């Protein structure tokens, strides 16, 4: 294990694009600083809607080739962020996108939503015991906004963190390892409100986006006092925007704003926020470094 970089960050996400939207600047920052940044994506996002009309044929109800295309988008995004270690849970295509909550795809036996929790967690335990991250980032129990794959990604990440530390659990998957700090993605309400105020003031809703979203459309919004860490990633915001742009089937970026397939404009947040749910905070107030207080 001596050849691993001193600081190691693991992120667990549901679909290609979630990592760039939620943590793109954080990933770019720590990668630039020499940390090992490992991304595990749980599905290929096969059920996503496609924004560019010229690529609409990729969608699940037409050619059903969106998954392979999004693997390419993810690889391009990782190049923008300087992240070289990105993997799919259990290998590419092991778990299929479950679609939005309530969609018939939720019942597909191949879907991530239907996957056996401990079986999926075992694949992640193997990654955890290999890269030995001090910090794990994933979603809150609601997956930020209730998408089944995001909820499942949360459950798999939390279960795998527990099992990885269990001395008696599956020694064939590596030596036991206890992740020091676990964070959930979040955005403080005041930042979301200020972002939408900027968006309305810029009048961009009239130019690029047919409408603007509302704060309730932003995943993981929490009262300000629930946020425990704010990573100042402003210097890496351009790389975040470039990574989001690489997910062209899913995201339309316009300056400091972007829209998903619902065409509703929303602010792009250059500072990224987190809630510490396991481990001791490394600062008295809000932390500004996810590795604060850990041995590296
Ligand atoms: Zn997603």
TrEMBL record:
Zn(2+) binds at residues 15, 18, 150. Its cofactor is Zn(2+). Its EC number is 3.5.1.103. It comes from the Bacteria. One of its GO terms (biological process) is mycothiol biosynthetic process. It catalyses: 1D-myo-inositol 2-acetamido-2-deoxy-alpha-D-glucopyranoside + H2O = 1D-myo-inositol 2-amino-2-deoxy-alpha-D-glucopyranoside + acetate. SUPFAM superfamilies: LmbE-like. Keywords: Hydrolase, Metal-binding, Zinc. One of its GO terms (molecular function) is zinc ion binding. Binds 1 zinc ion per subunit. Belongs to the MshB deacetylase family. Catalyzes the deacetylation of 1D-myo-inositol 2-acetamido-2-deoxy-alpha-D-glucopyranoside (GlcNAc-Ins) in the mycothiol biosynthesis pathway. This is 1D-myo-inositol 2-acetamido-2-deoxy-alpha-D-glucopyranoside deacetylase. It comes from Streptomyces triculaminicus. The lineage of its organism: Bacteria, Bacillati, Actinomycetota, Actinomycetes, Kitasatosporales.
């Amino acid at each position: 294990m001596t050849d691993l970089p001193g600081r190691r960050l693991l992120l667990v996400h549901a679909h290609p694009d979630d990592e760039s939207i939620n943590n793109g600047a954080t990933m770019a920052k720590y990668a630039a600083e020499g940390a090992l940044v490992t991304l595990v994506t749980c599905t290929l996002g096969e059920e996503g809607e496609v924004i560019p009309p010229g690529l609409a044929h990729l969608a699940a109800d037409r050619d059903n080739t969106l998954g392979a295309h999004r693997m390419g988008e993810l690889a391009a995004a990782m190049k923008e962020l300087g992240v070289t270690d990105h993997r799919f849970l259990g290998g590419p295509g092991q778990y299929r996108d479950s679609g939005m909550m309530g969609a018939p795809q939720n019942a597909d036996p191949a879907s991530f939503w239907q996957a056996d929790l401990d079986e999926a967690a075992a694949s992640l335990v193997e990654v955890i015991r290999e890269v030995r991250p001090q910090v794990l980032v994933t979603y809150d129990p609601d997956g930020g906004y209730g998408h089944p794959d995001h909820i499942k990604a949360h459950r798999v990440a939390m279960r795998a963190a527990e099992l990885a530390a269990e001395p008696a659990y599956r020694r064939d998957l590596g030596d036991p390892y206890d992740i020091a700090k676990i964070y959930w993605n979040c955005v403080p309400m005041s930042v979301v409100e200020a972002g939408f105020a900027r968006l309305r003031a810029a009048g961009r809703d009239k130019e690029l986006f047919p409408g603007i979203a509302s704060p309730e459309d932003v995943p993981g919004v929490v009262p300000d006092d629930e946020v425990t860490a704010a990573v100042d990633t402003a210097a890496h915001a351009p790389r975040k925007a470039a990574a989001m742009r690489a997910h062209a089937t899913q995201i339309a970026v316009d300056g400091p704003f972007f829209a998903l397939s619902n065409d509703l404009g929303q602010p792009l947040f250059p500072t990224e926020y987190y809630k510490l749910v396991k481990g001791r905070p490394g600062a008295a107030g809000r932390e500004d470094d996810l590795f604060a207080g850990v041995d590296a």
